[in-house]
Design goal:
This protein has 205 residues and is mostly helical. It has two domains: 66 residues, no CATH class; 88 residues. Helices cover 56% and strands 0% of the residues. α6 packs parallel to α8.
């Protein structure tokens, strides 16, 4: 089993950093750009009558990725907890994407603390509704990651984020996100109320 675990660990990882804090990756303008919240209205667009058929190479690439993910899952699902913990700390991205959804939520905190995790990946995880409270709190402590409004928006909307934490994050967002959050039933009421307060304060300033 040890050899199997080693094959799923990123070979470029510097194990000299084990046990030491690792520098967070700097957010770029592209990372910090906020995706427009999805509205209920359907935007009508003109669609060309000419349909572009997907190329065989595209299909092969998608199939290849699905096969790789299934193969990795089959290899790690029966590993012991210590082996899964090692993979969560040092595993490759394909492995991390599986372990972040593992029923054992103790692994989630180890995955987001993996020194090879980047902002794009952590933003993806921040939207996962099954993410553990410990993992969410770890993400929210990273100031570099919080520079991404999309990540913050994901955390605020995530039902697993503690309400108190979500409310504290609301002021980091902007008018578009506040209006989305203030909609009836969009999020838990204390969060919606915090968004409405921001809208009112913004209109008075």
């Amino acid at each position: 089993m040890v050899e199997l675990v080693d094959t799923l660990i990123d070979p470029s990882l510097d194990f000299g950093m084990v046990g030491k804090p690792f520098p967070a990756k700097v957010a770029t303008k592209q990372d910090t750009a906020v995706k427009e919240p999805v509205h209920s209205e359907v935007v009508k667009q003109e669609v060309s009558s000419e349909q572009v058929e997907p190329s065989p190479s595209d299909d092969a690439e998608v199939t290849g990725k699905e096969t790789e993910s299934s193969d990795v899952y089959a290899r790690i699902k029966n590993l012991s907890l210590p082996e899964k913990q090692k993979l969560a700390r040092y595993g490759k991205r394909t492995v991390r994407q599986l372990l972040i959804r593992d029923p054992n939520k103790n692994l989630h905190r180890l995955v987001v603390g993996n020194p090879d995790v980047g902002l794009d990946e952590i933003t993806e995880y921040s939207a996962y509704p099954g993410l553990s409270k410990e993992a969410i709190e770890f993400i929210a402590q990273n100031r570099t990651w919080l520079a991404s409004r999309q990540l913050v928006f994901n955390l605020v909307r995530n039902p697993s984020t503690p309400v108190e934490l979500a409310v504290r994050l609301v002021p980091r967002l902007g008018p578009n996100e506040w209006r989305w959050l203030a909609r009836p039933g969009a999020v838990r009421e204390p969060i919606a109320a915090a968004a409405r307060r921001q809208i009112i304060e913004g209109s008075l300033s």
